[in-house]
Design a protein that fits this description.
The structure is a homodimer of 461-residue chains. In chain A, strands 15-12-14-13-17-18-16 form a seven-stranded antiparallel β-sheet, sandwiched between helices. Chain A has a five-stranded antiparallel β-sheet with strand order 5-6-10-8-9. Helix content of chain A is 34%, strand content 21%. The first copy, chain A, has helices at residues 7-17, 26-31, 52-65, 117-125, 143-149, 156-159, 194-198, 232-243, 257-263, 287-303, 315-335, 351-356, 358-365, 395-408, 427-430, 433-446, and strands spanning 22-23, 45-48, 69-72, 89-92, 99-103, 108-111, 129-130, 166-172, 178-182, 207-214, 216-217, 221-229, 251-255, 277-285, 308-312, 338-345, 368-374, 379-386. Chain A is α+β, with helices and mostly antiparallel strands and 461 residues long. The first copy, chain A, is globular, with a radius of gyration of 23 Å. Chain A contains 16 helices and 18 strands.
Chain lengths: 461, 461
C-alpha cells in the first residue's frame, strides 16, 4: 500500500527539511517505534521537526511519494497511537517545545506541541494561573500529545479534560496545508468546530503544531481526605451523597479491595472487611472555604459509613495519599508478568454494580482484575493481570465480555487512553456501522491518500 | 436547484409522516418563516415532528425528491439560521418536548430537542442539580436550538457554553440515517468527536432529535454586585484584578456609557463622568463562601477606583440588577427603527481598547454603537443603530470595518448568535479559504445532496 522510503525519497526529505532533522540510527528507530503499551513497530526514519514549515513540507512529500507519517509526542501513550505500524516516517514534535506566551490579561497561553504538561502547569502557576488537565503521565507527556488524545485525569470531574482547554490550534492537515482553527477567546461559534474534531483524533486528522490554551485563576488552596468503607457500594453511596449535597470536588478517586490489599501497608489504618474500598477526595478554592468544605465532606463520609478517615490538609499529607494511589500501578507492574490496562467509563450510578460484577469474569476467564480510578466521572482503570504467563488463552474473550458489559451499562470503552492500535478491534462494540462509516468518510476528506497515522482507530472494514 | 413541493410530494410526505404532521396555512408559513432577526422566507410547508422516525422518513424523502429541509426550534435565533431560505419543508421540533429522564445518580439528563431551556433548568434544580447554560432567550429557546447554535450566556466564564454540557446526541443525518454520538459519561475518547461537530453546526450536519446532558451539583448560593467606574479602561482593570486574584465569578457583565445613559434612571446612584462604565459581578458557591467572596470582590473594585457600588445579596436585589441589563435591549429596540445586533468577541485584554475605539467608526459611518455584554469572556454585544432610517448607506461598510478590527484584535465575529444567513458574508474575514473549503467538504460528506438547511453558513463560493 505504501512505498518503502527509498534512498531517493530520503534524500528528497533531507533536501526539503534539512539533513539534521533526520535520524536513522537503529537505536533511534527502536526507541521511537514504541510507546508505553507493549506494541511496537520500527519506523524507517525519524524526523524531528523544529518548525511548522518542516511539517508542511514533509506531508506534501508524503502525498507525492505515498509514504506514511506518524506523529509522536513523548510516546507516553498507552494504546499504541503513535506506533508507526506502517513504517515510513516517525515525526517527533518534542523539539517544538517552547511556551510562546502566557497572557495574564487574556487568560490564555500559546504553546508549541512538544511542551511538557507538568512544566507548563508549573509555569502558569507562577503567574497565578491554572491549567487543570492532569493526565497521569504529565511529567513526561506533551501538550500536543494530550490534545491529540484528549487526555484527562482526576481533575476532569470539576474541570474537564484537555479538550476543554484548547481554544484554538495551528495544525498541518494530512495534505500539507497549514490551517488555524478556533479562537483565542472563550466563546466562538464561527463555522464547524474543527478544533475539537482534531483534538482527540489521535493524530489522524492533522499534526498539531501550535495550541492556544485557556487558563483560569489558580485556586488558592486544596484540601484532601482519604476514607475507608466496608465495601464499594457504601463508598459509591458516599460519592453520590457528596455530589448531591452541593459539593463539586476537584478529585474523587476510588480503589477496590484488590488494590487496597496491594498497597494497604502504606495506609495509616487497617482497612475493614473482606472487600473494602477507599475514596480519595479533594476540594479546592479559597483557604477558609476548603477548610470548611473538607470538614463537611468528611462529615458526609462518616454519615455514609466511613470506617476510617484521614485528613490531608498540607501538601505533604496530600502527596502521601496520592503516593498510595500511584503505587498501585507500580506494584501491579512489578508483580504480574501479564498486565493489560483497560480504561472504561460507566455512568456514575453504575460504578458499584459494575465493579461488584467483575469477580464473575475473573472466575470465568482466569485473570484477576484490579479496579481503581475516577469515581467522580466513572472512569475505571481495570488492570487485567495474571502471574501465569502460559494461561492467557481466554483473555481476549474475557476482555471482550467486559467491554460488552461496559457498553450494555451505557458506558464507553475508553475514557482517557484512546483507541490507537490496542482498542481498534473493540470499536464496533460501541459504535454503529453508520457512525464508523461516517468517521471513515471524515478521515478521507482530511487525508485522501491516507498518509497520516494510517491503520489507526478504525477496525479493518 | 430544488424541486418545488408538488402535491404528489406533499401527499407522499403526508403518507409517510401522517397527515396531522403537516400544516400549510398561510399564517403558519409566515410564522415559521422568521426568527428574531429581520430575515424571513416562507417555507412551502411546515412539518411538526413528534418522533424521530418522522424525521428519518422526511429526510429520506428529501433526498429522493430533492427538496430542502430546515430544522427549527423556537425560532428565537438572531442570525436567520432557521429561516427556510430555499423554501421546502420547515421542520419544527418544538413538539418533541419531553424531559425523558433526570438521573440524580449519573448526574445526567435525557431530553428531547424541543424542551424549553428555562423550564429544564427549573426542573433539574428541584433535584439539587444545575444546568448552567443561560442564553438570553432561555425562557423561549429550546435545548435543541441551543445545541445547534452552541448557545452561551453570562455563565460561560465559569461554566462554559451549551457544548460543554452535551455529552451525547441522537441525530438524524441529512441522508436520513439515525445515529447516536458521544456517551452518557463525563469522559469518552472513542472515535471522532461527532457530538461537538454537530453541536454548533446550526442544523446543517444533522437534526438533533435527542440529547444526553451533563448536570452538576447546584451551587447553594449566589451573591452579586454592581460597580460604577469613571471609564471602561478602569472597569476592565478591575475585571483583570478580580480574575487574577483567585476569583472565578459566575457572571461578569459590563455596560458602556451609551447603555448607561439609556437605562441610568433605573440605577440607585448617579454614574460619574462623561463616559462611565458599569460592571455586574456575581459569584456562586456555599453560603458563607459567597458572602466572603463578594466582599473581597467589592474591595478589589473599590481599590481599582469604583465610584459607586451596590451589593445584590438577595434574589430580589439580583433580579433588579439584571433587570437593568435586560432593559438595554428593550429600550434600544423601542428607540431605534434601525437596529443591527453584532455579537463579537475580543480577547479579554483587548476589550477596553476595542470599545474605546468604537467612536471612530461612529463618526465615519454615521451610526451609533451601544456596547454591553460579557466582560469575563470578551463577548461584546454591539448594537448598531440609528434613528435615521434613510441614512444607512454606509452601514454594511462600517460593520465590515468593525468586524475586520475584531479579527485583527485576534477575536471572532460571533460568540453566541452564530452565522446563519446574517453573518455569511463575513465568514471569509475570519476563516481562511482552506478552512472554508475543508468545512464545505465536511458538509458534503454529511449531506451529499445538500438538502439539510442549505445555503447557510458558507459564503457563496
Amino acid at each position: 500500500m505504501f512505498n518503502p522510503l527509498s534512498d531517493r525519497i530520503i534524500q528528497t526529505i533531507a533536501g526539503a527539511l534539512g539533513r539534521d532533522a533526520l535520524d536513522d540510527r537503529p537505536e533511534t528507530l527502536q526507541e521511537y517505534g514504541r510507546d508505553t503499551s507493549d506494541l511496537s513497530a520500527n519506523p524507517e526514519i525519524v524526523v524531528r521537526a523544529r518548525e511548522t514549515a518542516q511539517v508542511e513540507a514533509l506531508l506534501k512529500l508524503a502525498n507525492e511519494y505515498r509514504f506514511p507519517v506518524t506523529p509522536r509526542g513523548a510516546g507516553s501513550g498507552l494504546a499504541g497511537g503513535s506506533v508507526p505500524v506502517c513504517g515510513g516516517v516517525l515525526l517527533s514534535l518534542t523539539d517544538m517545545n517552547r511556551i510562546l506566551a502566557i497572557d495574564q490579561h487574556d487568560l490564555t497561553a500559546d504553546v508549541q506541541p512538544g511542551v511538557i504538561t507538568l512544566g507548563f502547569r508549573q509555569e502558569v502557576r507562577k503567574q497565578g494561573l491554572y491549567y487543570p488537565p492532569d493526565p497521569a503521565g504529565m511529567e513526561l507527556s506533551t501538550i500536543g500529545g494530550n490534545a491529540a488524545t484528549n487526555a484527562g485525569g482526576p481533575a476532569c470531574l470539576k474541570y474537564g479534560t484537555t479538550r476543554d482547554y484548547v481554544l484554538g490550534l495551528e495544525a498541518v492537515l494530512p495534505t500539507g496545508q497549514r490551517i488555524t482553527t478556533g479562537t483565542r477567546t472563550r466563546k466562538g461559534v464561527v463555522g464547524y468546530n474543527l478544533t475539537h474534531l482534531i483534538v482527540g483524533s489521535e493524530g489522524t486528522l492533522g499534526v498539531i503544531t501550535g495550541l492556544t490554551l485557556k487558563l483560569i485563576p489558580h485556586p488558592p488552596a486544596v484540601r484532601g481526605l482519604a476514607a475507608a468503607f466496608t465495601d464499594l457500594p457504601a463508598a459509591m453511596a458516599a460519592v453520590h451523597k457528596v455530589l448531591t449535597s452541593g459539593h463539586l470536588p476537584s478529585a474523587l478517586e476510588f480503589m477496590d479491595h484488590r488494590s487496597i490489599k496491594l498497597v494497604g501497608d502504606m495506609l495509616p489504618f487497617k482497612v475493614p472487611g473482606e472487600r473494602p474500598s477507599l475514596l480519595i477526595i479533594e476540594t479546592d478554592g479559597a483557604e477558609e472555604q476548603v477548610d470548611r468544605d473538607i470538614e463537611l465532606i468528611a462529615g458526609l463520609c462518616r454519615q455514609m459509613g466511613a470506617t476510617d478517615l484521614i485528613m490531608a490538609g498540607t501538601e505533604e499529607e496530600r502527596e502521601r495519599v496520592w503516593g498510595v494511589r500511584r503505587e498501585i500501578s507500580l506494584r501491579i507492574h512489578d508483580n504480574y508478568p501479564v498486565y493489560i490496562p483497560e480504561d472504561v467509563v460507566v455512568p456514575l450510578g453504575s460504578i458499584a454494580a459494575f465493579v461488584e460484577g467483575l469477580p464473575a469474569f475473573e472466575d470465568e476467564y482466569g485473570f484477576e482484575v484490579y479496579a481503581f480510578g475516577h469515581a467522580g466521572d466513572g472512569n475505571l482503570h481495570l488492570n487485567i493481570v495474571t502471574t501465569d504467563r502460559n494461561n492467557t488463552d481466554r483473555f481476549d474473550e474475557g476482555i471482550t465480555a467486559i467491554l460488552k458489559k461496559v457498553v450494555a451499562s451505557r458506558g464507553t470503552i475508553s475514557g482517557e487512553h484512546g483507541i490507537g492500535l490496542a482498542k481498534k478491534p473493540y470499536m464496533a462494540l460501541e459504535l454503529s456501522a453508520d457512525s464508523l462509516e461516517l468517521q471513515r468518510s471524515i478521515k478521507k476528506v482530511f487525508d485522501p491518500n491516507n498518509v497520516l497515522n494510517p491503520n489507526k482507530l478504525f477496525p479493518e472494514a
